[in-house]
Amino acid sequence: xxxxxxxxxxxxxxxxxxxxxxxxxxxxxxxxxxxxxxxxxxxxxxxxxxxxxxxxxxxxxxxxxxxxxxxxxxxxxxxxxxxxxxxxxxxxxxxxxxxxxxxxxxxxxxxxxxxxxxxxxxxxxxxxxxxxxxxxxxxxxxxxxxxxxxxxxxxxxxxxxxxxxxxxxxxxxxxxxxxxxxxxxxxx
Length: 188
Fold this sequence. Notes:
seven-stranded mixed sheet; alpha/beta; about 190 residues
């Protein structure tokens, strides 16, 4: 078990780039989601959003993921957030992805920014990846279709006041696991 924890830590270190590598990584990630079909419409019709330029994920039976992000309302950066995830089940490999969470209204925004917010395994996400896909993952069921981050397209809707979209950045991971995402928030 000790070796598995070391392997997970090593995989995460290898696939998670330094969060301050590019000063405009947040703007670049937001642009990708603005140009990805329906997710672009959410910017005009949401109370706010949290964007994570890179979340690194790895596992071997026990897995984990981590990423840092920013929270916006009215297009203004209002705070910082981080996401951690622990999963158990069949899984092997590592991957990196970008994620954005839209808040439908002030209630859902307040729920997310109240301290430690957690998505259960039933939350849904729309994966923006090459080809068509559908899966039950640690954040619930996911589905999507596109050609990659440069020509991504999405289709999604709110679930309990939040809509989640992801864009695969790289890696390879086989997974049939259960877990959830936990978020922390720090006002700016």
